[in-house]
Structures are given as structure tokens and as C-alpha cells.
TrEMBL record:
InterPro entries: DUF5711 (IPR043765). It comes from Anaerocolumna sedimenticola. This is 6-bladed beta-propeller. Keywords: Membrane, Transmembrane, Transmembrane helix. SUPFAM superfamilies: Putative isomerase YbhE.
């Protein structure tokens, strides 16, 4: 009898123990879910917070000429001109620099790497983000160059009757050379290189029977591309629609921007059409990030003179908003659209809500993102300022 009581007590104890563990597990799960929910709520609260002004965190005196150009570089800035380039953090501290002589410098940035090319001439400079600099001389005048995240550079050149696309390593070694003939293939307009340096897309314009023809060609220089003639894994004819701009939006997505339309392609190895749209209104501006493509369209005779459209990479409309802002530049940063002119600055959430609008007292030249939330770099003719959005006046 005593043994049976002990067994019942033991079973009762084990049952209570299991129930206790279940309760603890449930409480833990609920706590984790609540914690995640709070984090998401807090993040959304921060991301959708509205601001009225900004505070200057760092201020650096400009020491360059008015012809110098600026671009985003990580959380800092890239400055380049005819006689050299340098990268700085938001506080104005030097990260690296290099000198050269160019007549018409153009830049492309991918992660820490930068390529600066002398457009219309035959030299370019590759910066590795750690102080290293390589000069590459090419055989024909440069139309455009792009750099990948390991320093591989694609260069589109304009020859007399024959045009070349060449791909170079970070050290200047020629890796790939592709030739096109003007009479057969047309004239090169644009190219874009994938982040990993293995894929390339080009836009060529030709004239046939008195009519303009535009073709976009996709190359793959990896293992899959070796199975195709000249590494060409796809091509699309756009007829008389001109495609002046093509971009790898991310490593596996390409967008072609036409004079009245756009097309999204997936390209893990070979291109496949994801989405296409033709606009009835004139395209005023295009912009994109690794998540979105966007357009500003003429809005006709309506009170708001422009229409902003923002798409995800599947072609879904994320933002459709009529606006009346004055702007000269527009870009997307994180989940926000930034517009600015020399005197006005506007930030829109991707749901169309106005996050920030500000009018400057004097002309500004650049507004560059730092953290996609509330930090930016403002550049005018005299200063470089790292600023943080605020709710109070300066």
C-alpha cells in the first residue's frame, strides 16, 4: 500500500513538474513575442516620426573648388574633381585620398570601392577604400565605367567603327574583352555591372531602314555564361523606344529605363521579365535603390504638377502620390523618398506621408543620407555639415 502511495505521489509530482515547465515555456514564448512586438512598434514609431528642423552635429569648412563633386560613401562622403579624390566620414575626418589629372571625371561606388573615369578620354583610377589606388589606361575614349564590390571594373568605350567593353581586375589586369561593330550592332548608350562583377547588361542604339532600333543585351561571365556564344545569355529588342539608362538594382535584378516605360528583369543567371509598364505621361525623373524603382511623372494640368510612383522589385506600386514640391534632385533612401532643390528639402515616407519639409536661408548643393532614418550630410558652397533631424527649431 505504501509503495502504491509513493507511486501515486511520484506521478503527481511528475505531472506538476511537467505543467510547471509548460507554464514557464508559455510565459517565455509570450514574453519573447511581446518583446519582438515592442521592438517592431518602437522601430515603426521611430521610422514614421515627423520632424520640423535639424541640429548640426559636425561642421567642416570646405577647402575645394566649386567644381568639385560629391557622392555618398558609406556613412560619409566621396569628393572628387579634376585633380583628385578623397573620402571623409560625417565628421570630416579623412578616410583616404589620391591625386590625378582628368578633364571630365565621373565616379561609381560599390561598397568600399570607387572608380573614377575621365569621360571622353582614356584613363581611370580604382580606389580600394584602404588607401590603395590603381591607374588603368584603356585603348579608346571612355563612355562609362562601373565597379563591383571586389574591385572588378567594366568599361564601355567609344571607338571609331568598333566599340569595346572590357573588364579589368582591381590591379588593372584585363579579364574580359567584348567587341561590337557600329554598322552591325549599333552605338553604345549605357552599361551596368552586377555587384559581384559576374554579370553585365548593355544598351545599344542602331538605325535600320531609317528607323531607330534599341537592343538590351545580357552577359554572364560566370560558369553558366561559358555555355553561351560570347557569354550572351539574353537580349531584348525595344524597337524605337530608346533605353538611355539601365541598372543592376541589386545583384540579381535589372531595370531598364526607357523614354516612356520601364522593365524589371530577374537575372540569377539568365534574364527573365518580371514586370513591364508603359507610361502615358512624360517621365521627369527616375530614381532607385536596391529595393525600389521610382519615377516622377508630369501630372498634366492638375493642381499638383508632379506624380511620384514608387515600385518594389516585383512591380507592385508602393507609393502613388501627387506632389507640388520644387526639386532638382530625388532619390530613395531606406523606405523614404528624398527631394531637394537649392532652397527646399522634403522627405516622404513610402506611404506618402510627409516626414519633413524645410526651407533653407541660403543655397545648398547636396543632401546625402547617413543612416536612412534621421541623419544626413548637407553640403553648401562653404561647409559640409552632418545633421540630425529634430522636432525643435535650430
Amino acid at each position: 500500500m505504501a509503495i502504491e502511495l509513493e507511486k501515486r505521489d511520484l506521478r503527481s509530482y511528475e505531472l506538476r513538474k511537467r505543467k510547471h515547465k509548460q507554464i514557464v515555456t508559455i510565459i517565455t514564448i509570450v514574453s519573447v513575442i511581446a518583446g519582438i512586438g515592442f521592438i517592431i512598434f518602437a522601430a515603426n514609431l521611430i521610422l514614421h516620426k515627423n520632424y520640423t528642423s535639424y541640429q548640426v552635429i559636425h561642421k567642416t569648412k570646405r577647402s575645394d573648388s566649386s567644381s568639385a563633386k560629391y557622392d555618398s560613401y558609406g556613412t560619409g562622403v566621396l569628393r572628387y574633381s579634376r585633380d583628385g579624390a578623397m573620402a571623409m566620414d560625417g565628421a570630416g575626418n579623412l578616410l583616404w585620398n589620391g591625386t590625378f589629372e582628368m578633364k571630365d571625371p565621373i565616379a561609381d561606388v560599390c561598397d568600399k570601392y570607387v572608380v573614377i573615369s575621365d569621360r571622353g578620354y582614356k584613363s581611370l583610377e580604382v580606389f580600394n577604400g584602404e588607401g590603395g589606388m590603381t591607374t588603368i589606361n584603356v585603348p579608346d575614349p571612355i563612355i562609362k565605367s562601373e565597379i563591383a564590390n571586389q574591385g572588378v571594373v567594366a568599361v564601355l568605350m567609344d571607338g571609331d567603327d568598333v566599340n569595346y567593353i572590357k573588364i579589368y581586375s582591381e590591379d588593372g589586369e584585363e579579364l574580359v574583352s567584348t567587341r561590337t561593330i557600329n554598322e552591325k550592332d549599333g552605338f553604345p548608350i549605357d552599361l551596368s555591372l552586377s555587384n559581384d562583377g559576374r554579370k553585365l547588361v548593355t544598351s545599344y542604339l542602331s538605325i535600320s531602314s531609317g528607323k531607330v532600333q534599341n537592343k538590351v543585351t545580357f552577359y554572364n561571365f560566370g560558369g553558366v555564361g561559358q555555355n553561351y556564344v560570347d557569354n550572351v545569355v539574353g537580349g531584348f529588342d525595344y524597337g524605337q523606344t530608346i533605353i538611355p539608362n539601365i541598372e543592376f538594382i541589386n545583384n540579381n535584378t535589372v531595370c531598364t529605363f526607357g523614354d516612356d516605360r520601364f522593365s524589371l528583369y530577374s537575372m540569377n543567371q539568365t534574364p527573365k521579365v518580371v514586370y513591364e509598364e508603359t507610361f502615358k505621361s512624360e517621365i521627369k525623373s527616375i530614381f532607385h535603390s536596391d529595393k525600389y524603382v521610382g519615377f516622377v511623372l508630369d501630372n498634366g494640368d492638375k493642381e499638383d504638377k508632379y506624380l511620384i510612383l514608387l515600385y518594389d522589385l516585383k512591380g507592385n506600386v508602393i507609393l502613388d502620390k501627387a506632389i507640388n514640391y520644387n526639386y532638382d534632385n530625388i532619390y530613395v533612401s531606406g523606405d523614404e523618398v528624398i527631394l531637394y532643390s537649392n532652397l527646399e528639402w522634403t522627405i516622404l515616407h513610402n506611404d506618402g506621408e510627409e516626414k519633413f519639409h524645410y526651407t533653407f536661408d541660403s543655397d545648398i548643393s547636396y543632401i546625402l543620407p547617413v543612416n536612412n532614418i534621421d541623419s544626413y550630410i548637407i553640403i553648401d558652397n562653404q561647409y559640409i555639415e552632418e545633421v540630425k533631424l529634430s522636432e525643435a527649431k535650430k
